[in-house]
Automatic annotation (TrEMBL):
InterPro entries: Na/Ala_symport (IPR001463)
Key word Secreted present: no
Keyword Transmembrane assigned: yes
Record GO cellular component, one term: plasma membrane
PANTHER family named in the record: AGSS FAMILY TRANSPORTER, SODIUM-ALANINE (PTHR30330), TRANSCRIPTIONAL REGULATOR, LRP FAMILY (PTHR30330:SF3)
GO molecular function term, any single one: amino acid:sodium symporter activity
UniProtKB keywords: Cell inner membrane, Cell membrane, Membrane, Symport, Transmembrane, Transmembrane helix, Transport
Protein name: Amino acid carrier protein
Main location: membrane
Similarity remark: Belongs to the alanine or glycine:cation symporter (AGCS) (TC 2.A.25) family.
Amino acid sequence: MATRSEMTFDERLLGPVTNVADFIWGGTWDGAQVLPFPPLAIVLLGAGLWFMIGLRGYPITNFWPALTNLFAGRKKSGAGEISPFAALSTALSGQVGTGNLAGVATAIALGGPGAIFWMWITALFGMALAFAEGSLAIRYRETTSNGTYRGGPMSYIMMGLGPKWTWLAIFFCVGTLISALVTGNGIQANAVADGLNELFGIEEWLGGLIVAVLVFVVIIGGIKSIGNVAETVVPFMAAAYIVMALIAIALNIGDIPETFGRIFGGAFNAQSASGGFVGAAVILAIRAGVARGLFSNEAGQGSTPIAHAVAQTDDPQFQGRMAMLGTFIDTIVICTMTALVILTVEGNFSANGQPVQHAWQDGQLQGFAVTSGAFAAAFPFTVGSVPLGTLVASIALLLFVFTTLLTWSYYGERAITFIYDRFPGSTLGGEKMLLMGWRVLWCVAIFVGATRESDLIWRMGDIANGLMVLPNLIALLLLSGVVFALARGDRTAGPTHTADTPEEPEEY
């Protein structure tokens, strides 16, 4: 074992960071149970339940109208920057990323197959939270002096709750900047560099450089450029991935009953499996499912309303339905496809020198390698020297990650400009200079993140997500009465706190 002096900086940091992440999401410290429940998971599920009850099951009863929004959402029906569908695609491009491929595998490794059940529950309640976020994003959004629309939690905190809550908006923005650089950048950059290395043998630093340049070309054009790319790429990549996953599952359809038995059984019982997974208690399943579910769909985190706020619609309820549909697509559809492939597909895997049936039982595979291994077992014939399944999973990962990097750069922009605008004398010209600096920093961070240790980044991501969730949930709960009224069709529900100021934006 290496001494502390022989350990790298990342290795020394991993222990403390893991403890903080485990405490937030699992109530443990140094592997020992400190709290009898996972704190943030309970808070998130509790808030989701509150909105589900207050909305009277709106995400379920209005699911079909939400689907019809997909067609109506391509048309402009109000003020904004991009179409409602493009806003959904942009939000989805931030949601659908590493969490849908590597995150699902990590959830199963941490909490067993039962974690998938809790991921579903997170998504179900998350749809209610997503409706709240999307509707408030339209109800409370700001305009700059040149007529540009923008918004998000920082806007509905300031305009819905008033200037005395400025501290909460700043808290959220600081959390957003940290989360953007860690989860929206570092984790994604690390995954895309690994994918390019596996597929083409490109060194990780070079893969990071290539992606950084490609991202810069798009984000230099702002939200409209990001929206155009997202609207084109996201529907295609999601549909293609779902089709390939369905084929893989169909080829192993006989294992589906056993798969669902493991998911539902593991959600409520301590369980064990042959291979590289040791018995997991229910609390681990809840912690893993909720944490990875949030990482994937971002419901309650406050990131997606930043994208929905620029939709060209004046109907908060309409965009709220679009937002909740994004959570459904991300987790109930795409994450479920990944989970079923991982848990169902049979292949030649091993654990402790013994053969096992499934990739998730293989003790040598971790994260994305589990997903890639399962797809490779489903489609073993090679293209060049690479199994078709590996090619499919890797290309999906590259596309998912690339679009996530685009969208999260914009989330970071909104956070940093909000903080800048709190200073007297801030101007649009100053904002533009700040944004250019942020975009350069963003692409440098991609290059750096491509070579970092993935374990440390994932743990830091859990902490960073929590820094966004807490202030956003406080705001959502305080504005829950407004959300319930918006769901009933009252477009002007709630107070509007505005003030004429010489700084941007004009609303507060």
